[in-house]
Amino acid sequence: MTVLEKTAECINILGRFCGRRDIKDLTTQSLMESYGIPRVDLFLLFGGSIACAGDLFAQAMQAGIAEHYMIVGGEGHTTESLRRKMAALCPGLVTEGKAEAEVFAGYLSQKYGLSPDYLETASTNCGNNVTNALALMTQNRLPHRTILLMQDASMQLRMDAGFRRHISPDTRIINFACYQVEVIAEGNRLAFRDTITGMWDMERYITLLMGEIPRLSDIEEGYGPHGKGFIAHVDIPENVAEAYAFLKKNYGDFSRAANLAYS
Question: What global pTM score does this model have?
């Protein structure tokens, strides 16, 4: 195995770990097969997601897999990229100055004629994505025995851990990362095996993944109970820690430092 092939393998290990999916697709059949329910109480899409999440959310709405639909996201470290890519994908869509939730809602309206039930537009990071969404759920007395979460694959596991930190253990959380991607060694470079609408460039994808492992680690510097207390405990498997260590040695400058406004 070449160094480049090893690098691709390590990126994919982190990608599979962070990009959790608890059901195979966004259908009532998958919910029935995995959880014995035809729909969830609430489906939440988070604005840190890439553009393909808008199409998946629309398909889920058309399939009727939830009683209520909410899009969550104000302005954070991924917002400007989302605005640019959505504007390019959907001519005429106004994205300038819009919150992430508003961008996705506009896309749903213009392309599919659909509207979510609720928008949260003030949050700036994964932490207050969670707390603001919960406040909106409480304000509107939304049932949440079962909730489905969809976030960018790099941040899906942290979103799950954030909700586990704040929500009742009686609530069943179901995860569906908005994409699954495989990185391959192609000649002398890294490439994505498949084309995904709105996908990050390779450097940005690696940066996002490498930024997650320190945040997920339940240590003093991390976001878990032994650190900042933002999320519930997450176990980091040995193969994930090893993959991160390999990438850090070769791509140490790619780790995303926490921005105090948007971390």
Answer: 0.93
Domain regions of the chain by residue span: 28-175
Instruction: Decide: 148 and 176 in contact? Cβ < 8 Å.
Output: yes
Provide the terminal-to-terminal Cα distance of the chain, rounded to the nearest Å.
Answer: 36
The rounded distance, in Å, linking the Cα atoms of 175 and 155 is 11
Collapsing DSSP to helix, strand or coil, 18 comes out as helix
31's tokens: 């919910």
In tens, the pLDDT along 111-142 reads 999 999 999 998 888 888 999 999 999 999 99
Go through the chain and tell me how many residues it has.
Answer: 263
The CATH number, out of the four listed (3.40.50.720, 3.40.50.970, 3.40.50.620, 1.10.10.10), of the domain defined by the range 28-175? 3.40.50.620
Annotate 116-175 with DSSP letters as a single string. Answer: -SEEE----SHHHHHHHHHHHHHHTT---SEEEEE--GGGHHHHHHHHHHHS-TTSEEEE
